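Database export, one record per block. Field names are fixed; values are copied verbatim from the stored entry.
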Amino acid sequence: MFKFIASAIGLTMLILAGPVWAQQTWCGNQSPAEDHPLAWPTLKPGFSPLIQEKDYEGAYRYVLGEYRSAFGSQDPELMDGLQQKAMTYLQRRKTEGELPSEWDTVFSPSRNAELLILDGRAPRIHQVSCDSPAWDNPESPAVAVFYLASAMNRLASDTIRQAQILAAREADQARRSYEDWLFNGFAMWPWEMKLNELRIEKDFLSPAPEWQFTALRPSVALAVRSDSFNRSQLDHALVIEPIGYVRYLDGSRHQDWWGVSPIVTVTSENGGGYGMLARYNQFTLGAAHHESVDEVLVYFSVDLYQYLLTQEEKLRRAKTFFGGD
């Protein structure tokens, strides 16, 4: 119905479908061993608590530390290259976000080898021939590099996916909050809607506002003038709120609110007055001083405007607000 809603739902469906993880292979036919020290099932229990705490950098450092513990001493130069690559990556992700492709390995038919670009004192290419017996050796530091790269790549991809899921959830929550605000909230006259739109950034990445203005809001009220404790006079009044404030109750989904406004009143028998009004949901209670009679009148009213709006009118306003056709 609304372009924003359609986009959010489309994104949500795309994310919930999730990526289809292809079976990792190197050299086109070398599959990772599940019992390798750096295999994903082996590493995951160690860094999962870090992921749950959103310490993604800690998870990357954990994987690198596991390589260092198991293989680092066997080839210090190779360890230096991996260390430099990992530190460079951690710096880049702070400004550029996750970059899974930085950990992609490449099969080179011309070299008949699997390749990974490393950093170090001089950037170089790490490669292992596809015919090398090292592929079958779980203690080979050269092959373990590809296990590390695979884990880093998947960590980055999973982090992106989790961020996308979170964004989709937040977009859906924002959509729902705006629906609550427009359909359940304190009904606005057209000019009040325009006024409140001025302070809303319509990217809809944040929930609907928890407060709003009233402006030049008219209502009818029953005015009570009390000459004494035992005698009161009733009068009909037109009440205008030049400007006011309405605040929604936390957790009410925009169905409950309170507010305050200055008021200007006109009565049929007691002239005009000015004062203050307080509201809770549709009910208002006010007091205004009337100079013509030099007394304070008390006002009671029920704001019926939202009951005058049909569902079709609410839908039309919502489409206009969301920029629909």
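Remark 1: The radius of gyration is 33 Å.
Remark 2: Residues 260 and 278 are 5 Å apart (CA to CA).
End of record.
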